[in-house]
Design brief:
The chain is mainly α. 82% of the residues lie in helices and 0% in strands. The N and C termini lie far apart (233 Å). The C terminus is likely disordered.
Length: 311
């Protein structure tokens, strides 16, 4: 009897549970079905995909705009430098004091710089991302100090080569000066002239040694090392403004001192005559005496005639 009551209680309990659960399940099934029909069964995933794509597209547009800006700026920088190098090449070609070899060496080096910059420009124009383009653009400055290093470097080489031309011309005149001393100084005192020629040779030797050293130093300057280049340029400028200029001024003084000495050799009496003339006292005569010398008095008419004198 007791077991029968338990079974009846279980049946009643299960019946009550089924009555409460089944409507809830029915309601849930209806909601899911409604959601599926509305297309929202992915719980917002399509919108997420759409938003991500939109963000990616916007980021790509920004990146492309930045890339375009970097490339345009790089192209302008390169064009400006190439133009400056072309102007420098024209300057070299028009410098009459440079030898053909010096012109060839300088213009060849300039053209190599232009070619390197144009190669870099081609690479930057082909870059597909802003990061790479920016890194390549930095090379325009870090690898090619055109304005800070290369242009002054070339200008200084031009100056040094021009000075070397001056030295070569002066060296060619020294044998001519020596020949003048030999020709016009035979049997005469030429010690002063000879000393001046010796000094000219010494000054030219100093200039030539300095120019050779400075030219080698300037040629070794790397266009990618700005700090080292500045120190080198300062030293070479000091050499030109002190050592070389002083020596050239001394040569100019020596040459000017030679002129009167050569004049003494060639016209030895000219100096003596000039000094004698300057040493001779000037003769001044009273005006009356001068007039009497110009107009001597006539013989007196009262003077006795020679015929009137009778022995």
């Amino acid at each position: 009897m007791q077991n029968k009551k338990i079974i009846i209680s279980l049946i009643i309990g299960l019946s009550l549970i089924s009555q409460s659960v089944i409507p809830a399940l029915a309601q849930t099934t209806s909601t899911v079905t409604s959601t599926e029909q509305a297309g929202n069964y992915t719980l917002g995933a399509p919108k997420l995909v759409q938003d991500v794509n939109r963000m990616a597209s916007k980021a790509a547009a920004v990146s492309q705009s930045r890339l375009t800006s970097i490339v345009a700026r790089a192209d302008t920088m390169i064009t400006t430098r190439v133009t400056a190098l072309q102007t420098l090449s024209t300057k070299v070609q028009n410098d009459s004091r440079l030898t053909d070899t010096e012109k060839t060496n300088l213009t060849t080096d300039i053209q190599n710089q232009i070619s390197s910059l144009q190669t870099l420009k081609t690479k930057i124009d082909a870059d597909t991302d802003a990061t790479t383009a920016l890194a390549d653009t930095k090379q325009i400055i870090t690898n090619y100090y055109i304005f800070a290093v290369y242009e002054p470097k070339t200008d200084m080489l031009i100056v040094l080569n021009n000075l070397n031309t001056v030295v070569t011309q002066l060296q060619a005149t020294v044998p001519q000066l020596q020949n003048l001393i030999t020709t016009y100084g035979q049997g005469k005192d030429t010690m002063q002239l000879q000393a001046l020629v010796t000094d000219i040779n010494n000054q030219l030797s100093t200039i030539s040694t300095t120019l050779t050293s400075d030219t080698t130093t300037i040629e070794g300057v790397s266009i990618s090392s700005e700090s080292t280049a500045k120190a080198t340029f300062a030293q070479v400028r000091s050499d030109v403004s002190t050592t070389i200029r002083t020596a050239l001024n001394k040569i100019r003084t020596d040459i000017s001192q030679m002129r009167p000495l050569f004049k003494t050799l060639i016209l030895p009496n000219a100096t003596q005559n000039n000094s004698s003339a300057s040493a001779m006292p000037s003769m001044h005569m009273p005006q009356g005496q001068a007039n009497s010398m110009a107009n001597p008095p006539a013989t007196s008419s009262s003077a006795p005639s020679s015929n009137a004198i009778n022995p």
